[in-house]
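Protein 1 of 2
SEQ + STRUCT:
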Amino acid sequence: MADGSVGALNVGATDLASHSRARYPPQPLSKMSQSSREFVERLPWYLRAVLVVGGATAVTLLVTAWMLRADSRGYGTHQQLGLPPCTFQQLFDMRCPSCGMTTSWALITRGQVAAAFQANVGGAVLAVLAAAIGPWCFASGVRGRWCGVQLNEWVALITLIAVMTVTIMDWCVRLWWSG
């Protein structure tokens, strides 16, 4: 009986010890080793490539816009890159939805926010987004882990739709005021 009760106590103690260990939460990421943390948080190679290319493209466009002199008309800055004048404007004698985008980017890079929004609201919003998100995307892609906040596909899609909607609405307002 003594042997049976000791055996029962040992089994009970072992069960109790394993039960109490199981109740503790898993080890937080901050306490994991660096290699374990990287394994858990590592982004897939294709997402890293998209982030690096997208971030580098945004930053390159901003640097290019900074090198341009904004056209005083509020559009036409793209011609400094060797591009032709807007075909839509030549055919229909009115600005297209993207007229003024390059100008707004050039103005944003110089801190002339009000003038950028006058040139093209959608372009100004896009330039601000590129300035905020471009370096973050590039850094996240190079690191292989999200820098701070994780990108959500729905947020990206809604942001894209919002910028396109703002651009079209800006164009409609310009058409209304000019005609």
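Protein 2 of 2
SEQ + STRUCT:
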Amino acid sequence: MQQRIVTLALWQQENRLLLAMKKRGFGQGLWNGFGGKLQPGETAAAAAEREMAEESGLANIQLQPAGQLNFFTPGGEDLHIICQLFRIAGAAGEPTETVEMRPAWFTLSIIPYDLMWPDDRYWLPQFLLGYNIEASFWFGKDNTVLRHEVTACGSSNTAILPAERLAIVVRAIPLGRVLTYGQVAALAGIASPRQVGSLLHANSQPENVACHRVVNAAGQLAQQFAFGGLSGQTQRLTAEGADVRGGRIDLTTVQWCPKVEHDAG
């Protein structure tokens, strides 16, 4: 199997993340972090710093290793892309548009997952919560994720409030799919499914944080859904292609199941 090493660096400042729209070449039209291939004799850290400077105009870039992403391409895993992940701790200057990338800051509740690589939904929320990431993804020919394994390593950022944690996780739920209260609690590090329900009810930005995509463990919708009651949640899910019958949704067909393990070691 052939291997290729690349880098990816992401800059998170409290409740916002710096991404860039790829203007040409591989990944054109998608929002991503900054990075690329290593040059001969170059370390991953040196390559990440160089790519970040070239693509954003930033200087004095401070990097922290944040894990590794493994990508296996279609065709029996005949290409293994090893992506060394870095967290940017600081930099000088302001991000500027280059011939290759157009940078922009996004608050964590409006991360543009629909215009990003499909694997990002699975691991990026855990990165934003402060974890380092060890993950592997196997892709189909149409770039769909066929299989994935994600481990969130270390500890999360305790400064992130429960409502912000919920927004980070719920924002990643794909169109037409749902998570249960229990799944959201586990992924976001929230004390209980009941607390998830309370936070969803107080959600102040339903247009960005799709609280209608969260149901109970039996697939039952919320009678007291904050934005129009049961009929409001039903209408939102139905508009996204879900089959809601009798206030319930069939989890076997629409439940999203990101497989994330947490390793505090």
